[in-house]
Specification:
- This protein is of the alpha/beta class and 309 residues long.
- The chain is 43% helix and 10% strand.
- The relative contact order is 0.10.
- The structure holds uracil (URA).
Length: 309
Amino acid sequence: MSETASEMTPQALAALLHFYAEAGVDALCEEAAIDRFEQSAEQAQSRKQRTRESGAQPSSGGGAAPSVPDRQGASPAPRLAQAEKPSAPQPARSPAPKASHLTVPGEAAFEDARALAASAKTIAELRQALEGYNGCNLRHSAKSLVFADGNPEADVMFIGEAPGRDEDLQGLPFVGRAGQLLDRMLAAIGLDRESAYITNMIFWRPPGNRTPAPHEIELCRPFIERHVTLAAPKVVVLLGNVAAKSLLGTEKGILSLRGGWMEYTAGDVSIPAMPTLHPAYLLRNPAQKRLAWADLLSLRARLDTLESN
Ligand code: URA
C-alpha cells in the first residue's frame, strides 16, 4: 500500500515534490473548479449520518491523520477500518476535462477564426484581434495571451508548440527552461531575440501543459498562418512535433522530419521551413542535442546564403 504524505519524512516529501516539479507538475489545482465547501459539508453530513446509524459518539477527529491532496488535488477518502467503511457513496468530484473530453466547436467557429485572422492587416492588428478573441477554449484557463517575442522583421521565425507555465505568467514565448535552452541554441549560431522572431502554434497555455487538442490547433491555425504571412520571414524553423506536423500537413514524426528543408505555404506565400527538435525535448533527451546542432548549422548556412545574396 502506498504511503500517505503524513507518513512520509520531510526529506522524502521534498524529494517527491522535486520529482513532480521535474516531471512538469507545476500546479496543484484542477482544471475544473471544485466547490470544496460543498464537498466538506456533504462529507460532514454523511459522517454524521453514519454516526447516527451506528449509535456511536461523534469523533472529535483527534487521532486521525489529516487527509492530504493527491496529485490531482483531490483529498483521499479518510482512512477507515474495514468495519467503518461507509456504505453511502462518496460525493462525486468534478473530473478535470482531458483534451479528448472537450466539446469540439462547429464549423462556424473555424470560419470566425479564419475571418478574424484575415481581417488583420498588420502584426499589431493580429495581436489585437487575438486579444479580443474568445473562440478558443484555451484562453479561458490561461492567464495571458502569449503572442510573440523578438524582432518581427528578422529573417528567421521560430514557431514552437504552446506556452507553458512561465510563458503564461510572463505573456512571452520561450522564457522558461526550454526558452533558456532556445536562447543558448540561438546564441550558438550568432542569433538572439533581436535577430530572430519567436512565436508558437498555440497562443494560450493548455491546462497542465497537455498536448493541444486537434480543434485547438485548427482554431489557432488561421492566426499563425496570418502571423507568418504578415511577418514574411525568409526562413521558418518549426520546433517540435506539433508545429511541424500541423504546419507542414504531414503525419511524419519530428525525428524523421528534422533537419530537412521543406516549403511552408501560408496564404499565397511559400517559405523554406526546417523542422527541428523542440528544446523541451532536448532537455529530456540531452543526447539528441547533436542532432539539433546539425540542424542549427544547416540553418546558419541557409541564413548566410541569404545574407550574401
Ligand atoms: N514550449 C513551447 O513550445 N513554447 C513556449 O513558448 C514555451 C515552451
